[in-house]
Specification:
This protein has 463 residues and is an alpha/beta fold. The chain folds into 3 domains: 38 residues, no CATH class; 356 residues, Alkaline Phosphatase, subunit A; 45 residues, no CATH class. A hairpin with a 6-residue loop joins strand 15 and strand 16. Helix 6 runs antiparallel to helix 7. The N and C termini lie far apart (67 Å).
């Protein structure tokens, strides 16, 4: 025992601690290893904690405006003068006829992007938009194409784009879900479109609302407990003790792990979610900007305003779903109604994000699972078209006022600068500072990624 000679019972402080030894011996390599292990342990304890991207990110957060059903690109964002000239003539498919858009196109902004008159409000933001007019995907069937759009795969259960984003970057507010999906469809793959699959359950999306009900009626059930917060914490601690014991006995059971994390997140959400979903404190000017109070735009406007509030509070990824855009018949009236419902709210979202300084690092994406044929189906409809369609991107790191790629003269098939869904996913991750080839998760003996073994970053859309 190391003692002072004058005070034989008093213990002296050690000359150096074990931590000092790790720092000093062998050039400190032991300490570096210790620090790495400690960092990983801390990350495991807080899986939603903010993480450093692979490289400098241009975007910090995402709003995905998902138009379920396949919007008609030739009626909205893909202007084809040849289609107008050939209206009523024999189409590319036996027995079909070309059908020109029922709405006029015009050039907008300094960039002169061609946009349909269906979007008069959104067209004012043309110089901030990049129209990707050469999209294509594998299958023309809704469930498969919708799953491919969200997860990169239509054959296997895979983590969603939002789950991968949250896994790669974490969130900026541990009291809120990092990934929220607003009124997702119950069909078209259902919860798989916002699920986490083999990623830890904490990365799955949190659903707000249902696709067949107005968002104004949406609520997070059981968010206000019948007991005090302190009493609820005691109850939860007891339940979590049992859950952790079950997990200790069955360490590979991801469902138990998901329950533990979900309970903790739900407990923390009580402090913020009710306030975020209450739009009554927003100014009348803001509500008007989004189209609240007008029948045609109120519902989608509320969704867009909620999305802005979620992102501003620290949520990483928000998806807003809107449908139905599957117009095999009644195209003229149905498409006009759809576009009217979303035009002003999206334009309001642009303006609101911009005035708050959020647009520059918020990636906005709009599109559906595929497009529609330039030839007619019946007298007033269009069939599915997976060979060529349009998505657009804006905000964080996107080259605004541009058009990437093109379809053929009639808009039937992508022919130049073709962009597959895998390429689009790789590009979105790149804008978020994530290398799609490095963002992997080991499962069943191999490293999986969102883009599987494919995908190239489309550099032409990046500012």
């Amino acid at each position: 025992m190391n003692t002072h000679p004058a005070f034989p019972c008093q213990r002296l402080a050690p000359l150096f601690t074990r931590r000092d030894a790790l720092k000093g011996v062998s050039c400190g390599f032991g300490y570096l290893a210790f620090a790495g292990i400690a960092t990983r342990a801390a990350a495991a304890d807080k899986p939603l904690a903010p993480k450093q991207p692979h490289f400098a990110a241009k975007a910090k957060r995402v709003i995905f405006l998902c138009m379920r059903g396949g919007p008609s690109h030739v009626d909205t964002f893909d202007y084809k003068p040849k289609l107008v000239a050939d209206d009523g003539k024999p189409g590319s498919r036996p027995g079909s006829t070309w059908m020109a858009p029922r709405w006029k196109f015009a050039q907008h902004g300094k960039s002169g992007l061609w946009i349909s008159e269906l979007f008069p409000s959104l067209a004012a933001h043309a110089d901030e938009m990049c129209l990707v007019r050469s999209m294509h995907t594998d299958l023309p069937a809704h469930p498969q194409a919708f799953l491919r759009l969200h997860t990169g795969s239509s054959q296997f259960v895979r983590p969603s784009l939002g789950a991968w984003t949250l896994y790669g970057l974490g969130t900026e507010n541990e009291n809120l879900p990092g990934f929220i999906t607003i009124t997702p469809p119950s069909g078209f793959g259902g919860a798989q479109n916002y699920g986490s699959s083999f990623l830890p359950a904490i990365y799955q999306g949190t659903r707000i609302g249902a696709d067949n009900r107005p968002i104004a009626q949406a609520e997070v059930k059981n968010i206000k407990p019948p007991v005090t917060t302190a009493a609820q914490r005691l109850e939860l601690d007891l339940v979590q003790t049992l859950n952790r014991e079950a997990l200790r006995r069955d360490p590979n059971n991801t469902e138990i792990e998901g329950v533990i994390e979900s309970y903790e997140l739900a407990f923390r959400m009580q402090t913020q979610i009710p306030g975020l979903m209450d739009l009554t404190k927003e100014s009348d000017a803001t509500k008007k900007l989004y189209g609240l109070g007008t029948n045609a735009t109120d519902d989608f406007g509320r969704k867009c305003l909620l999305a802005r509030r979620y992102l501003e509070a620290g949520v990483r990824f928000v998806e807003i779903c809107h449908g139905n855009w599957d117009q095999h018949f009644g195209l003229t009236r149905a498409l006009e109604n759809n576009c009217t419902a979303i035009d002003k709210p999206i334009a309001g979202l642009f303006a609101d994000l911009k005035q708050r300084g959020l647009l520059k690092d918020t990636l906005i994406v709009w599109g559906g699972e595929f497009g529609r044929t330039p030839y007619a189906q019946g007298s007033d409809g269009r069939d599915h078209n997976n060979k060529g369609f349009t998505l657009w991107m804006a905000g964080g790191g996107v080259k605004g006022g541009t058009s990437h790629g093109s379809t053929d003269d009639h808009g039937a098939e992508a022919v130049q600068g073709k962009v597959h869904i895998h390429d689009w996913h790789a590009t979105m991750l790149h804008l978020l500072g994530l290398d799609h080839e490095k963002l992997t998760y080991r499962y069943a003996g191999r490293d999986f990624r969102l883009t599987d073994v494919k995908g190239e970053v489309v550099k032409g859309v990046i500012a």
